Each structure stands twice: as structure tokens, then as C-alpha cells.
From TrEMBL, chains A, B, C, D:
It is an enzyme of class 2 (transferase). Residues 1-67 form the DAHP synthase ferredoxin-like domain. SUPFAM superfamilies: Aldolase. This is 3-deoxy-7-phosphoheptulonate synthase. One of its GO terms (molecular function) is 3-deoxy-7-phosphoheptulonate synthase activity. The keyword Membrane does not apply. Residues 88-322 form the DAHP synthetase I/KDSA domain. Pfam families: DAHP_snth_FXD, DAHP_synth_1. Its EC number is 2.5.1.54. The keyword Cell inner membrane does not apply.
Length: 333, 333, 333, 333
């Protein structure tokens, strides 16, 4: 931790900061410049609360130096992690396309969706969001997803809306549990999924910084579950021509900062089906390990988010274009 | 709902939109301009999903016209609503200062905080966030808050972290239940607090638009609980000189759009105790009905968010300055 | 233009809006719903100022319907435009890499840069920004760029810092004139470059919406110069892990909204040389027609923006990876 | 400057950073923690370019410690600066209201505006923006402003659109020169107004950080002109209910960081006349030294920005409400 003193801070103020460092059982390292005094804190700064120093008289600002995420950091784990789900690898050379409908509307709609997903050779099926269903119907929606996917032996990805549903998810043996963007910093939920043995897709909050996202992953990992997949699905800005801006720069940053896989949800990001192919291509080209896609057997009749769903044919066309791109990048689809 | 067709949209495309309107049991209203055709949808558009029209060929865009919030809207309820809590009025001429510590650290710290709150003549005591406590400790924290407040007959405001805690909150008879910013769009939680008979403080998500916020309030109100207080506590932008920008413009918009009271949390917004007086003054001058403040008996020893807590003396000083301001605005403190 | 009246607007208020429409020589189209009245304005709405209606009593809001950009719109010009510069095509199947140093430091540095640009088979040479030079030195910097590029017969791209420099740019016969992000809405400058016969690269302001950007291009085009190339180079958000977020979604939107070419500046966007290859790949995969790159013969000695410059070797490596990607997308490099 | 090395950086990498510091004629200060090595640079770091260190192998990041603004900083000039314009003080106890029309439409409109400004006891007259006029008409607009203001002996504030207009501004003896938000980082313009002896109102760019804004002011001050007034007029965010969010938190930050006066433009910020009184009150309560207001003799006929202009009566009403507020804050109006 580095404490920058104000221009003209008094000797007593400096001493008071140093005393507080000593009280914490740590040691200081003083640099007195012509204009500024800087105090470095040496030792285990992890448990130091910077705000308790920031408030002291004469302190200009306090910066942490050490990163607060360790388990998920590439510094301590240089090679990339591959997460395996019933034989499907995420984070390896093969790019994964995880497709499915935003909402479970009926058995027939889910079956047709599963048919489309399998026909496009996708290896995982998702449902977009259980936010679309009242709590009472989550269980039913999960059943529809499981049944539809089972017809094609597809492992499933489903969003855990609430910690109370975790038992149900375990009972249905959901292969990958998704944490939605609004739960990205729900500490109780992160703690609970950190104790189980299932891969987690952690969606980024629409206004979460990359560091906050890495720290959310660290909170899961701290419980023992290191099978975490980051999912970028757009951040909120001033632009209104699409829902959120797909942050491809974050993919590049994550690939450097963490050893864990990164996937992207271009359907949610742009909120328009016609944008999905371009965004998916950009994501893969930037280094993403997979994409999550909204597919609906008949988009113009979808109950929710109709304008972001791909039709089965659009899915096929899009994957046909994605395949040579993956190969050009030294990967496969 | 207004559907704007693309430049050059064909007659068949227009007809197909009209047919879909008829299928929904509604009627259209066609305006053919020299360049553009616009289709208005007449009737109860509330249950129309715009995205199902946006996806049709030839459609440029679809805009809702009617607002999606009604119960909370000032259009249908022109006079302002006053919410009463054990004789304390929120939304009336008297401005309310709701003060307390961010975290419940110990009985002694909470008692000293309550003493400071009462000494400053505040009429309500809060705890900042139960996010600071693991779930297991919420109950204990609530007990500390209740006991400390009881010594001065202060009603309490506490944040409901999770729907599972609602029974505990009812048991402790928490006078005002706060919904934190990360739960602003947690539909299960909104539904549950919509069924009870307690005032709700609804914090704005750090990247939520005012319309999303009004719709979240509408979701509570739809359950029957109309005792909702909006709490602005800063939105996230590119600026890093403070935590979030306090959106005073939102206060002006809310005062026009809704009949419900609006309070502001300047401690959370700026994240720096030295900013709190200026921000609180700005909020009141912009029309806010109250402020939520972080106070700690000894800020430099606070376990969390030390740099945003006011000392008891700073609270007194600040309220002394706020009082004439309130009077100049035709209100009282 | 569509005027939405407030809930409960009086008949007199409606009539007063209609009167004002008539005064403008246009006709109205009234839709009276159960709750809301909507007034469409028919005819040439281009010269109507919406704010003059928005201020009338009883008006809720006013929305333009027609787009304000026409010449640059794909609606009226469905096929893509290819811009030719001394035999080099921008907007065609071939992707263009426009490379050069951010600042002109010396003849030797510029010559080495030109050598690197030519060695990598780039067909155009740029200088990053004349913002790095005081006005008095712009002429000198331009001379260094022209001389260095001439040794390899490379056409040049240079940023016009100020309308007063336009004569100098014409004198040096700069092949492509770049408008920097801070001048994107400098109407005098746009008007002047609209009168000349040179391709213009129009950089997006870091907080400009896509519509504002299209309208800036329309302002150039209105003067007769339709040779406009959009350059996306990142928008400002709350994220601080990189300079600006590269908005690949904007590429998809532009490709639909305008017939003009789109290029991307990944060096400026991310502000880190190690990010450039990933961002350039993402941009091309999203549909961009080219990239602008910062190259320096010796980045760690660059006078400005050292951390975003590629070394000559890094440029070669990056283009080697970009080539198969272009081919996979049905293009060439 | 502080250089944080990567986790696991080699001794050779550390040495290479140290060598580069020595080459710059400065000295280093090494702190080797258990996990991280931090290198402080001691001496005059002003001329060090951090990016040249950031690019070195093994470097995690580089942070400046010293602020880059000095002349405008309150550190070196603790008491507030009062700027005097023909007897009117800006930055003192008296709050200044600077009012006028956005555009100069005609002599009559400007005369009526000046009458309204004088009738409301404002001491300075402005024109909102010369962006509303083509360059050729700036001179004429300035003449209309000067003539209208002269009838009431009001000093004038006008926006300098372009460095070429500076001579005209000097000729018309414009008392306060405004730099518009798009020119906030126009270095040529800042340099030129730094050489003259007129107060400058420096508007903040809609996406400029406070530090960038302070550095722009420093660029003016470096030329010798220290008569600078900051003008906050809203920053761009995701919210669309108003034009830009008025950043009252920035007022609090500026009051701490700089000794120079701060004014606010609530008309431009919100873009709606009905918001202006609430925003102006918030600004004054947060510590602003004045407000800039749009006034038009007949807003619904204004050629531009009709919905943000106050009528003469609305101006009177608003100032009547502002007066007791100023007094409550220990100031006058």
C-alpha cells in the first residue's frame, strides 16, 4: 500500500500515519521528495483497510499496490486453465458455442430449440435467464431445459437466480451454473457456489470494472471452487444505438490477468439478432473461448427479447462463417 | 406504441406489421409520409412486447409511448405523498436526516452512534449496509441496531440483503426496509416487499436509468405497498475523483415524475466524508426530502468505509449549516 | 416528428400545438388513445426545431422520426462505397493497414518508421497526431512525414489540427486528411473539408454517439465531399484498465447505417501496445475495412505515447496473424 | 513517479528500469516486498514520460505521484482567488448570475434579453454559444451582444469559437472570454488565451475528468493569465432523462483542489428550462460562485435550444428563490 501525503503535510501528520502502520503490525518505508512524502507499507497489506489511512489528516490519497485477487490471477498460475464438462472442454483450443432460448416457454419450444442447437453441432445448451420466470416457475423451467437437452445428450447451462434455488440446481444436476450480472457481487451467492463442485459462468455486471469482476471470481475461488468461466456481455455507456457495448478490450485484459476461460454473450450485449454474428466474430478474434447465443424456433413469436434471438437457420449460417475464423486463429469450432 | 418503418419498406412489410397488431386484438393508425410510414398502435399496449415487432422485416424501430409506471406516477396522483413512520413524516415540509454507522461492529460502537444521532436531533437511525456482514451475522447486527436505537426511541432503517431475511426483519419490526442498489431489479425481492406494510427505501442501481428505477418502484407498488421512498446515491461515470457522481438532476426529474418522496445518500455517493456537507446541501437545494448519512463514533477506527463516515462533531456542524438552508427553501430540519 | 402530449393534456393545449404546426406550413396527424394523444407532423420536418414544441404546455416529449443524415445513409445508397487513394482502395475487399508514428520526432525516426511500414507491406503511412506538436511545428512535422513516405511511394494520412492549416495540407498534397476526435463537431472545420476533393478520415469523439458521428459526416458531405471514412478509436466509460473501450458494436451499426468505409484505431483505443493485435483482430472480424496503427522504430524511446507503439517486429508479427483472418472473412490484406 | 514491477519480475528487469531512471538524471528508491518490488523516482519527475517506463519488460504499471497542475492548485495558493470584471467580483461572497440568450437572433431579441437580464439585477450578460452561428456571422453576433449589453452597462461574456476570432474579441473588448467544452483541450487556443489579460471561463468537456480540466487550466495559466473561472455544465452518462448530469460533486472537488472560482451552467446541463431552478440551487448549495443562464424574451420562438431558455418572468422568479438560499449560505446574490 502506498500513502501519498499532501503537499505541505506536517512532520506530526507523517508520524501519525507511521504510528498507525506500526499498530497494524507492519513496517513503513518513507520516501521524502522535494515536494512530496510517500509512505510505503511493507508486509502483508491484505488485511489493511486503506480507508482508515485515507481519512488521516495530511493524507492526499492511498493506493493499494498488490492485487486483491490471487487464486484467479495468471501471475501465480501462468498456464491457461481448461474446464471440462462431460467431455466438453472450455478454455482449450476448441471454441464452444452454448446456445438456447432466453426463456422456457413450453416443452415444444424447448424441444425445437434443442433440435436447433444440436443440428448446429453445439455441445452445450443454455437457457438465457430465469429472470424471465417468477420464482415459483424456476423449477418447471429447469425441467423443460433438462428434458429438451437430454434428447440430444447436451449438458446444460442455467442461471441460478437466488441462493435458495441451489438445492434444486444440484438435484437437476445442472452441469454449468451461471451467475447473472445482477448477482455478480452478491456475496452470499458467490460464497455458496464456491463450496460446490460445478463450473460457474460468472457474468460481468453491466457497470462492473474488470478488477471488481476478478475479485468476485476470487470470492468464489476462495471457497475451493476454481472452475470459473468469465462471461462478458456488454457494459453500459452513453450510446443508445444498441443495448450495451461489447467490451472486447476486456477479453484482452482478462487473457493477461487470469488463467481462467472467457466467453462472451453477444445476444445480450447488442440486444439485436442482426448484430450477433459480427459481435461473435469480434469476440472470438479478440481471444474468447466461446460464445453464448440466444436461439428461438420462431423469434417473432418469442415471449421475451424476441429481437435478440437467432432463428435456427441464422444460427447455422453464423456458425458456418465462424468456423473458418476459428481455424484462422489456430483453433477449432 | 409507435412503429417506424424503414425507408423504402414494402407494402407487404407494412401489411405484415398491421396483421400482427390485429392478432394482438389491437388497432393500428397509419401515417404515410413522403419518406416514412409510421404505424401507431391504439388500445391497451401494456401487454404488447415491442421486440416482437422490432424483429419484423422492414421495421426500423419500435417506441413505447405510454409510460410503464402508473401507480408511482405523478400523472395519476398529482399531490405529493407523505410517508409516516412513528410520527416522523418523510415527503412533507420537514427534511429528515437518517444517520447511522455503515456496519454494526459492537454494542458499544452502535450505542455511541445512536447517542450521536440523537444528539444531532435526527429522528431516524440507519445502518449503512448489511453487505458488510456475512449472512449468519445479519441477525446479530440487526439486534445491535435495534437495541442502540431503542435507547433514544429512534425508529430504524435497515437494508434487507436477501428475501430469506424478511421474516427476521418483520420479527425485529424494522420500521423502514431499505433495498440496496444491487437488489434494485431483484424481482423476487421487490415482489415480497410489495406484499408487506412497511415503508421501503429503494436505492438506485449505480447504472440504473431513472425509468428503470421508477419501474422497479412500480413492481413493489403493484403488490399493494405504495410506501416507497426513492434514494439517489450516485451513478457510475468515467470520473474517478470520487466514488460516484451524485445525480441531482435525477431529483428534479423524480419530483416531476412521481408523487413519492426522494432522499439522498451523500456518504455513499462521494465516498469521502469531507464531501458530505456540500453534497447534502446540494441534494436538499435540488428538492430532496431527506438525507442518509454515515456516522461513526471514531471514523479512523471504522472497520469499513472509514473515509466516508462523519464524526459526531462533523454531524453536528453539518446539520447546523443545513438548518438555515432548509428554512430558506421553505422547509424545516 | 412525433409529439406525445402529457397524460391529461387539455384540448386547448392540443390545439395550440396543432396551430404551431400549421404556422410552420405543415400538417398534423392526430391519434387520440384512451390515455394519450399523439400528434404526428407530416411533410418536410427537416427544418422544424423540436425544442420549440417541447416547451409548449401539455407536451410530454417530441421525437424526430426521420434521420437527420441522408447523403451518408445506406437507405438512399445501398451499395458500399469504395474510396480510392493513388490506387489503394478503402472499403473494398482488401483490408488496409495505415501505420506510422504518433509524433514526428526527427527525420531519422520518420525514415525508420517508413521503412518499417513499407517492410510490412502497408500501403499507407500516417502520423498519429499533430496535437503532439505546437502549431508552429506542424509544417515541419508534415515535411518529415511527406519525405519519409516518399522514399517508399506511400500516400500519407495526416491530422488537420486547425482550419488555418488546410492550405498547408493542400500544398503538401496530403492524400487523406484526418479529423481528430476533438474536432468531430467543429462545424467550421467540417464545412471547410467538405469543399475539398480529398478523402477524410473522421475520428469519433470519445463520447460521441453514433448518430452524432453520422451527422458530423453529413455536415462534410453536404459541402460536396462524399469521400469520408469513419474511424472508431474507443469511447470513454467507467473502466480504467485501458484508455477507452473499442466499440466493435459501432462497426456493426455503421455497416448497416452508412455506405461509407469504417476503419479502427486500436493503438489509440487501448493505449497499450500489447492489446493492439487482439483489438485489431476484433475490429476486422466485426467488419472494419482497415486499421490505423502506431509504430515506432524504438518504442521505449518514443517521445509520446510510448506504451501504445508497436515495434517494427511486432508490426510484422501482427500482420502475419491478421492475414489468415482476413482470408477467412473473404477478404485480403 | 512510482513504478510497480510485475509479480516475479527478474532482477535484470528491475535493473533495466533503474538504469533508465539514471539516464534521465534522476534517482530511484527501491522497496522490495515479499511479493512485489516498487520503484519510486525521486527528483523532478515533471519531465518524465511515464509511458516510456510502462513499456519496459517486467513493469506492471506506472503512477504519477505529483499533480501535474501547480499554478491553479490550492496547495500552493491556499486562499481563494477573486476575479474582478469592471467592479463585479467572481469568487467572492457575492454570487454572480450571468444571463443571456443562446443565440443572437436579432437586435430586438438581444435588446429584450438585455432588458430582462438587467431587470433581474444580473451584473453580467452572456451569449450562450457562437456555435449557433457560422463563422462569418460571429462578428455580427458579437456586435449585437455588445450593443444590447451597453444599454445597461453590462459587461459581456462571449464564447471564443476559434483562435482566429481572438483579435475580434479584443477589438470588441469582450470582458470575459468563454472557452467552449469542445475546445477545452484545444492546446493552441489555450496557449493564445494564456497570453492575454482577460478573465477566461473554461467549460468542462462533457467527458473530461476533473484532472484533465485542471490541466487545461494549467495550460492557460502557464502563459501568464491566471484569471480562470471553471464552468461545470454537465457530464455525459448512460442516463437519457436529461441532456447531461450536472456534476455537483465536481464543485466540491474543485473547491478543494483549486483556488480559482467555479461557476455552473444549469441551462446547458439539463437542457430543460423547468430543471434550471433546481439545478441552479443545487450548484450554489454545493459551493458554486455563480451560474450561467439561458434567457430568451420568448422561449417558444427561440431559434435554437428553445426548451432550455427561461422567460424573463421565470428568471425573476428563480432569482427570488435563489436570494434567501445565498443568504443562508453566508453569501449574497
Amino acid at each position: 500500500m502506498i500513502i501519498v501525503m499532501k503537499y505541505g503535510a506536517s512532520e506530526a501528520q507523517i508520524q501519525s500515519v507511521v504510528n498507525k502502520i506500526h499498530q497494524s503490525g507492519l513496517k513503513e518505508h518513507l520516501s521524502r521528495g522535494a515536494e512530496l512524502t510517500i509512505i510505503g507499507v511493507i508486509g502483508d497489506e491484505e488485511h489493511l483497510e486503506p480507508s482508515r489511512f485515507a481519512i488521516l489528516p495530511g493524507v492526499e490519497r492511498v493506493n493499494r499496490v498488490a492485487k486483491q485477487y490471487k487464486i484467479v490471477s495468471r501471475s501465480t498460475h501462468p498456464s491457461g486453465t481448461i474446464i471440462k464438462v462431460r467431455g466438453v472442454e472450455i478454455g482449450g483450443p476448441q471454441i464452444q458455442v452454448i446456445a438456447g432460448s432466453y426463456a422456457a416457454e413450453s416443452a415444444q419450444q424447448m424441444d425445437l430449440t434443442a433440435d436447433a442447437v444440436a443440428a448446429a453441432s453445439c455441445r452445450l445448451m443454455r437457457s438465457g435467464s430465469f429472470g424471465a420466470h417468477p420464482a415459483a416457475q424456476h423449477r418447471e423451467a429447469l425441467g423443460l431445459l433438462r428434458n429438451a437437452a437430454a434428447r440430444h445428450q447436451l449438458p446444460i447451462v442455467a442461471e441460478l437466480p437466488d441462493v435458495r434455488m441451489l438445492d434444486t440446481f444440484m438435484e437437476f444436476d445442472v452441469e454449468i451454473i451461471q451467475i447473472g450480472e445482477r448477482n455478480m457481487q452478491n456475496m452470499d451467492l458467490l460464497r455458496e457456489v464456491g463450496r460446490i463442485n460445478k463450473p460457474i459462468i460468472l457474468k460481468r455486471g453491466v457497470s462492473a470494472t474488470i478488477v471488481e469482476w476478478l475479485m468476485a471470481a476470487e470470492s468464489i475461488a476462495a471457497g475451493g471452487n476454481h472452475n470459473i468461466i468469465f462471461c462478458e456481455h456488454g457494459i453500459r455507456t452513453f450510446e443508445t444505438a444498441y443495448r450495451n457495448v461489447l467490451d472486447v478490450s476486456a477479453i484482452a485484459v482478462l487473457k493477461q490477468e487470469t488463467h481462467l476461460p472467457v466467453v462472451v454473450d453477444p445476444s445480450d450485449a447488442g440486444g439485436k439478432s442482426w448484430m450477433v454474428p459480427a459481435l461473435a466474430q469480434a469476440a472470438i478474434a479478440a481471444g474468447a473461448d466461446g460464445v453464448l447465443l440466444d436461439v428461438h424456433p420462431n423469434p417473432s413469436e418469442a415471449r421475451y427479447a424476441a429481437d435478440q434471438a437467432l432463428s435456427p437457420q441464422a444460427l447455422l449460417d453464423m456458425l458456418a462463417a465462424l468456423k473458418p475464423l476459428a481455424v484462422a486463429l489456430g483453433r477449432s469450432l
